[in-house]
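Review form for a predicted model. The reviewer records the input and the model, then writes brief findings.
Reviewer: anonymous (R2)
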Amino acid sequence: MTEVTVPDVTIPENVLEDAEMSIPDVTVDKYKVPETEGTAFIRQLKLGWNLGNTFDAIDVSGITMENELNYEKSWCSEFTTIENIAAIKAAGFETIRIPVSWHNHMDESYQISEAWMSRVKEVVDWARACDMYVILNTHHDNSEAYYYPDEEHMEQSRQYLTAVWKQIAENFRDYDEHLILESMNEPRLVGHANEWWLDMNQADCRESVECINQLNQLFVDTIRSAGGENANRWLLCPGYDASCDGAVNDSFVLPTDPKNRVIVSVHAYTPYEFALNTKGTEEWSLDNTADQNEILSFMDKLYGKYVMNGIPVLIGEFGALNKDNLENRVAFSVFYTKAARARGISCCWWDNNAFSGSGENFGLLYRKTSTFPYPEIVQALVKGSEVE
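Model under review:
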């Protein structure tokens, strides 16, 4: 087995020194978290950050295989730099999730281009140089042409995901457990009436959940048989659209894994009206019990089905849109992360590049300068994610 080498990197200091707002103290109920290998591993992930709208970009006019690397900056205006990753580490994040779309970087035989794979690997190596955990996934590949979780498209889905994961596993076979692989991003019936709202009374939804079970199992089997460190690494698997309902419904079944190293993957922009709906409310308050209960309710479901039984859970995406409501987002951030950690769950903030001034996005890091326009939110996330 070859040794993985990483570049030298200097971690900057005082990246959050411009913060002007004090972070509120939050008290939440503490839950008994069984001490298992999985819950211990999730504790180490602590707080994560998504390199969003970057390697996941698709459907951009003017980009072909000849200039495919331009996809990386097509949605967020900047190429990723090692300084970006170092700043994230310096701010207190321990984990970086790197969403990657693969279908627009391959030939008809599903062979991923060397240039694309090499560029993804370069950024993974930067994160490892910063001593971070790294999550790689298949992101915007959910379509009828690639993988689509219904019976009609299952053979196509199996072929596509097997081909992609074999190549990823081979290219990263010597990376240790700091590299985590995630089967799919929000697998769902794209274009369906229930694309975002799972209804187990609908036959299409029941069929899709079963197909997702099968595709998660295929993913685990493919990685485990790929050799090298793939035999032992941690794997993330979501339910339908990576929602809490997708994970806790009785028909969702975690794949069988001989190593028992599967983590439940969930995305939760909750409360929706505050966190994700651009036309929703700007308000979220530590004094409002209803605001808190929307968060506590779904976390209790995840705790009750998984964590209390020793099964690890990661919230791989969450966040709150910037609506010129800094104080509200700070309160939300510290409460959300603290409530999750109290239940043995770690969280990864979705970041699609911060811009100066106002604007409805999730960005915390301004990638052009590797600075944080909203250091108070980062401080709140770090404070809430402290492991007590």
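Findings: Residues 203-224 form the longest helix (22 residues).
Further findings: Strands lie at 47-51, 95-98, 133-137, 179-182, 235-238, 262-267, 313-318, 346-351.
Recommendation: see findings above.
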